[in-house]
């Protein structure tokens, strides 16, 4: 490539750093992570649906109270955390550091609350005798525990990583080490975690309610 | 170019009122899902409605909270079709087989 051609590329609307997608490299990287992660969750959810459909007498152990009530509270907590996250990103973009930090702290609190409620639910199920290999309701459907703990466990791991990630971003943004872009990109990850729950909640909880 | 780019991104990316409206809609849809389960709607109908509502919820989250609605069309075309295509591919391969298993004769 000649010098003139190279000059031409660098002076083009691409400008050597801005893509035609009009997002910065951090945002694009996060979108690529989200695409790959959503394929992981899609595969897991579809495998779960496969096992569920092909297993006669799949256990349906959840009642409206307390299991569905608890998972509904978890959904409310995650949706609220998404709201505070998007407000944090908006505040960060407008240069209001203190407001952004407060919203980030609220998001982290919601995230921790989600993990704690989820942990109590896991403990209850384990005390009832559910393990990844067996369940107390139907011995011919041993995959119930594996599917439940596998899917919710991977999601809980994502939430936990998200809480740590947001805490680091919150600290860095408060110290003016990082910019509003960092807050925005961490927000993308957090909203993705929320989005995945929108499929786990109906498939694993609502469709496993005990029939009347 | 960089200055214009930053200006472009800061322009019209939603406000508090819009985000609160989306959040209320998400909560209302979730309440609708729980109501369906409480009423024990017929299972095939329930699966269809629940998956439909989940898709609407995820579209709202992606469009407004993840700002996809305010990004260029190119980004949307890079992100969404590939996920939908791969998910459909998995479903086409798996579901006929799983449904077939439930109809096998019992020995």
Helix fraction of chain B, binned, reads over 70%
Strand content of chain A is under 5%
What is the number of helical segments of chain A per DSSP (H or I, 4+ residues)? 6
Unreliable stretches covering 5 or more consecutive residues of chain A = none
Helix content of chain A: over 70%
Structural class by secondary-structure content of chain B: mainly alpha
Amino-to-carboxy terminus distance of chain B: 71 Å
What about the largest sheet of chain B?
none
List SSEs of chain B in N-to-C order. HHHH
Shape of chain B: flat
- Most extensive interface: A-B, 54 and 56 residues
Task: Please tally the helical runs of chain B, counting DSSP H or I stretches of 4 or more residues.
Answer: 4
What would your notes on this structure say?
- The complex is a heterodimer of chains A (212) and B (107).
- By secondary structure, chain A is mainly α.
- Chain A has 6 helices and no strands.
- In chain A, α2 packs antiparallel against α5 (143-174).
- The longest helix of chain A has 32 residues, at 143-174.
- Chain A is globular.
- The N and C termini of chain A lie far apart (73 Å).
- With 107 residues, chain B is mainly alpha-helical.
- Chain B is flat and about 55 Å long.
- The model of chain B is unreliable at 1-8 (pLDDT under 50).
- The interface between A and B is large, with 54 and 56 residues.
């Amino acid at each position: 490539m000649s010098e003139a051609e190279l000059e031409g590329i660098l002076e083009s609307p691409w400008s050597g750093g801005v893509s035609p997608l009009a997002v910065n490299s951090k945002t694009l990287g996060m979108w690529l992570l989200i695409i790959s992660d959503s394929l992981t969750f899609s595969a897991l959810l579809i495998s779960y649906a496969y096992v569920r459909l092909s297993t006669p007498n799949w256990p349906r152990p959840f009642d409206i109270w307390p299991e569905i009530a608890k998972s509904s509270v978890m959904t409310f907590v995650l949706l609220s955390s998404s709201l505070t996250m998007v407000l944090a990103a908006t505040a960060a973009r407008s240069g209001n550091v203190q407001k952004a930090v407060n919203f980030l702290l609220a998001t982290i609190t919601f995230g921790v609350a989600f993990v704690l409620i989820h942990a109590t639910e896991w403990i209850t199920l384990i005390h009832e005798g559910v393990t990844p290999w067996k369940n107390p309701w139907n011995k011919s459907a041993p995959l119930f525990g594996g599917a439940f703990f596998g899917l919710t466990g991977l999601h809980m791991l994502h939430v936990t990583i998200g809480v740590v990630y947001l805490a680091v971003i919150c600290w860095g943004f408060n110290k003016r080490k990082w910019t509003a872009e960092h807050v925005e990109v961490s927000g993308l990850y957090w909203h993705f975690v929320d989005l995945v729950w929108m499929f786990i909640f109906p498939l694993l909880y609502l469709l496993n309610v005990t029939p009347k | 170019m960089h200055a214009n780019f930053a200006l472009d991104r800061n322009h019209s990316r939603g406000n508090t009122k819009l985000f609160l409206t989306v959040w209320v809609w998400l909560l209302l849809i979730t309440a609708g899902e729980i109501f369906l389960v409480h009423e024990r709607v017929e299972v095939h109908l329930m699966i269809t409605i629940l998956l439909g509502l989940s898709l609407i919820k995820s579209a709202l989250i992606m469009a407004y909270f993840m700002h996809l609605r305010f990004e260029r069309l190119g980004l949307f075309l890079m992100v969404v079709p590939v996920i939908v295509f791969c998910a459909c591919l998995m479903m086409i391969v798996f579901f006929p087989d799983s449904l077939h298993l439930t109809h096998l004769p019992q020995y």
